[in-house]
Design goal:
Elements (H helix, E strand, L loop, with lengths): L12 E5 L12 H11 L3 E6 L2 H13 L4 E5 L5 H15 L4 E4 L14 H29 L2 E6 L12 H21 L4 E8 L2 E2 L4 H5 L1 H8 L8 E2 H12 L10 E4 L7
Parallel strand pairs: 1-2, 1-4, 2-3, 4-5, 5-6, 6-9, 7-8
The structure holds nicotinamide-adenine-dinucleotide.
Length: 262
């Protein structure tokens, strides 16, 4: 992959949260892979993350490949950070066309184990953060005459399982934020969609999948029988961000090897 000036996102400016895991030659997270895919299609990208070291290194790799990218410290649970990140993006590149709200949090507590801390972490870093994101970028998108907001959900926001009760609830809330915001922002030509990956091998889940007791029973439930990689999901973000999806809003793009078709 190297620098590109034309592409499906040519001229657009994107803010990507949770994009720090995108270093060249290493396994990527969803935000890292999406940042590379956006750049390869001609977008200018601002990565917002709490991991300064990997975020700055990812940006340096992107710039080294000939792309336009910038890092900003963004804790998605902070309204002030969101506002700073959006302002920096607009000041640096003149507009904000795309928000890929990818950073999130999940744990494995079942419905009887969830305590206040688990509840707060799941809800602060998923639906609350996504509200903050929407409220921060919409004024810039209105100024630009429209935009595309893409929220990272999960199949855990569609169906239940034997664990992760607060995560199910939080991603289920993200699913309905997408639909409400899609209707309420449609008059502004701002589209809002959700991406729902299944079991995926990313930086944050790498160690979990090394454990056969975690891996085997889960993969046994996936009709296509394999873990998804971040690069398999990034094209969904590109499509939803692009003008090819100009009439797509409030939708759920599920990428799960058939898991939730059963
Ligand atoms: N990995 C999976 O199996 C899977 C499946 C479906 C959905 N998801 C969702 O995808 C998203 C990304 O997951 P991933 O596995 O690609 O992670 P990842 O490997 O990209 O790591 C998460 C990134 O988010 C950043 N982050 C964490 N808390 C943050 C905060 N408060 N503010 C800003 N950045 C923060 C981390 O620093 C890290 O760079 C999450 O929303 C997750 O719920 C993951």
């Amino acid at each position: 992959m190297d620098g590109s000036t034309t592409g499906r996102l040519s001229g657009k400016v994107a803010l990507v949260t949770g994009g720090a895991q995108g270093r060249r030659g290493r396994k990527h997270g969803f935000g890292g892979a999406t940042s590379w895919a956006f750049c390869a299609e001609g977008a200018r990208v601002v990565i917002g993350d709490i991991d300064e070291e990997n975020g700055r290194a990812t940006v340096s790799d992107l710039v080294g490949a000939g792309f336009e990218a910038q890092f900003v410290h963004l804790d998605v649970t902070s309204r002030e950070d969101w506002e700073r990140a959006v302002n920096l993006t607009a000041q640096r590149y003149g507009r904000v066309d795309i928000l890929a709200s990818i950073a999130g949090y999940g744990d494995k507590f079942d419905v009887m184990e969830v305590d206040d801390r688990s509840f707060d972490l799941n809800f602060d870093r998923n639906p609350r953060a996504m509200f903050y994101g929407i409220q921060s970028v919409v004024p810039e998108m209105r100024r630009a005459g429209g935009g595309s907001i893409i929220q990272m959900a999960s199949i855990n926001g569609l169906v239940g399982s034997t664990s992760s009760a607060a995560y199910h609830a939080a991603k289920g809330a993200v699913r309905l934020i997408v639909k409400a915001a899609a209707i309420q922002l449609a008059p502004d030509k701002i589209r809002v969609n959700g991406v729902f990956p299944g079991y995926a091998d990313t930086v944050s889940t790498n160690d979990m999948w090394l454990d056969p007791e975690m891996r085997e029973p889960r993969l046994a439930r996936v009709p296509m029988g394999e873990l998804i990689m971040a690069e398999d999901v990034a094209p969904a973000f590109v499509y939803l961000a692009s003008d090819e999806a100009r009439w797509v809003t409030g939708s759920e793009l599920v990428i799960d090897g058939g898991m939730t078709a059963q």
